[in-house]
Amino acid sequence: MITGEKAKSFVTIMIVIAVLALILRVVIERVIDINIAQNESNAQGTLKLISAALENYAKDNQGTYPTDLSALTSAKPAYLDREYIAPSASKGYNYNCSRLEASGYSCTAGPTRCNLTGKISYTITTGGVLVSEECERKD
Q: Where are the alpha helices (DSSP H) in the chain?
């Protein structure tokens, strides 16, 4: 059994540990929030870049959109510098163009882990219309 001065020292150490744990939690949450904000900004920018390339392609091809994004990177000059829709995530988001037709497109960016890498899913459609919605956590 701990008594006297040893008990006071033990309580003091436990209080210090509890305060440090609380501070650490706040700092970690803040770092995650900053990372999420950067990922979301990057996702919006990437979708706008893809949309601008698709719109420019259509403008140069009598209003016809490409049916494959590789047409944007293989054109001379290229509309995109690289393939942005990849099987692996980029900066916390997965990208997909579920609709690529001669008449239009729909591309999305969704966080790889809802509320950890991003809180918002984005969709951009023909004409550069960007829509956002909160992601749903799938536990």
A: 4-60, 70-74
Tell me phi and psi for residue 69, to 5 degrees. Answer: -65, -20
pTM of the model: 0.82
| The amino acid at 63 | G
CA distance 136 to 34: 20
94, 112 contact by CB (below 8 A): yes
CA distance 3 to 14: 15
At residue 112, the pLDDT reads 94
Q: Spell out a b/e string for 37-46, using b for 16 or more CB atoms within 10 Å of the CB, else e.
A: eebbebbbeb
Q: What pLDDT is attached to residue 138?
A: 60
Q: Please state, as a whole number, how many other Cβ atoms lie within 10 Å of the Cβ of residue 109.
A: 31
Residues forming beta bridges with residue 123, ordered by sequence position: 108, 131
